[in-house]
Design a protein that fits this description.
Shape: elongated
Structural class: alpha+beta
Radius of gyration: 29 Å
Number of strands: 11
CATH architecture of the largest domain: 4-Layer Sandwich
CATH topology of the largest domain: Phosphatase 2c, domain 1
Number of helices: 10
Helix content: 40-55%
Strand content: 15-25%
Distance between the termini: 48 Å
CATH superfamily of the largest domain: PPM-type phosphatase domain
Length: 374
């Protein structure tokens, strides 16, 4: 187990404290109980050789103090020595048990990381001139993937993107994420336009809900933001199905919230009625960055219950980064956003966060000879 260097001195500090207390108290008062705490404190902090060394040190210190006080006998001397020996052995056993648990946790996290790369692979950092960054921040420390998703795909119809959040948690949510991603990857290549893509996603979610049955068939849904970049990246077309609207940052760092012209419900609810999927088109000039995220960002609250406002905060983050040095890359921008959300909430991650940044370089930022493809 890896521990900070200063923390590893705690067991030795307990031994020193035992010596001080024994010297400042009457001879009839023993510090043996405090010395017994030293090997126990060493169990989660040190390796077995270190624990044994602390135990031996505690025994030696106890023997020396008892002889100094003239109290070393069977009842106060030998018995305490045997107890210190037993506690040291127990501390080593505790350490082995903790190491086994940590090893199982590490293996579980490694397996989860592999599963995440399979279920939610990181998109390419570049498609043509479009620069891309993605981050996933789980709400639980032991979790790696949940019900939030992102996907970027180069298609015959342009670069298409989806950021979504499925209803529910746990393995059921991961199953729904797999269904969403599979449906998007197929339909993104086949659908001629965004309404056709959305219709294909609706059908896939209805099939998945019917397969799972029960509450998932009646209440399973996915909030989704689907975007398509026009040839030449001069515009971005957006369909918003109940998802937090993205923020468009221009080359000067000014932010605009790309709210839908018409409210539409999440995907997977067409059994309750028919809704249109209006396509909103927004300019995407050189130097612009489209920042998409799930409600883990927009619903993050501070101690007063105030929600995080990405449209208001992002320009400040961009200006601060520009003053500190070069303009933020898409990956740096997402990191700044994640850290700022953490400051807003006091370090509490209240819900999963999936974030995606798509940047069109300004003409001066393009490497010479760069050409678009896709």
């Amino acid at each position: 187990m890896v521990q900070p260097r200063r923390v590893k001195w705690i067991p030795a500090g307990i031994v020193v404290l035992g010596v001080v207390l024994d010297l400042v108290t009457p001879a009839g008062v023993t510090s043996a109980p405090l010395l017994m705490a030293a090997p126990v404190a060493a169990a989660p902090l040190l390796a077995p050789p270190g624990i044994i060394a602390i135990g031996a040190l505690a025994m030696a210190v106890h023997a020396g103090l008892a002889r100094f006080d003239g109290t070393f006998g069977w009842q106060r001397g030998v018995a305490n020595q045997l107890t210190l020996l037993a506690v040291t052995v127990l501390a080593v056993l505790i350490n082995r048990a903790l190491e086994g648990r940590d090893a199982r946790t590490r293996r579980a996290r490694e397996i989860a990381a592999v599963a995440q790369s399979a279920v939610l692979p990181r998109p390419p950092s570049r498609i043509g001139e479009l620069r891309i960054a993605a981050r996933y921040v789980p709400a639980e420390d032991e979790a790696v993937i949940g019900g939030d998703l992102y996907v970027v795909q180069d298609t015959p119809h342009g670069v298409r993107v989806m950021v979504g959040d499925v209803r529910g948690k746990g393995l059921g949510a991961v199953s729904a994420v797999c269904a969403d991603l599979g449906a998007f990857r197929y339909a993104a290549d086949e659908a001629e336009d965004l309404p056709g893509l959305v219709a294909a996603l609706e059908r896939a979610l209805l099939r998945e809900g019917a397969r799972r049955g029960g509450q998932e068939q009646e209440e399973g849904f996915t909030t989704a933001l689907i975007a398509e970049f026009a040839d030449g990246l001069d515009a971005v077309r957006v369909v918003n199905r109940g998802h937090p609207p993205p923020v468009l940052l221009d080359a000067e760092g000014r932010a605009a919230l790309l709210e839908p012209s018409e409210e539409s419900p999440p995907l997977g609810m067409s059994a309750l009625g028919a809704w249109s999927s209006p396509v909103d088109t927004f300019p995407f000039p050189p130097g612009a960055t489209l920042v998409c995220y799930t409600d883990g960002v927009t619903e993050a609250r501070d101690e007063s219950g105030v929600f995080y406002d990405a449209a208001a905060r992002l320009p400040r983050l961009v200006r601060h980064q520009a003053q500190a040095g070069a303009p933020a890359t898409p990956a740096q921008l997402l990191q700044l956003l994640i850290e700022d959300v953490g400051h807003h909430t006091g370090g509490r991650v209240q819900d999963d966060q999936a974030l995606l940044a798509l940047h069109r370089p300004a003409r001066s930022d393009r490497p010479s000879g760069a050409t678009a493809y896709g």
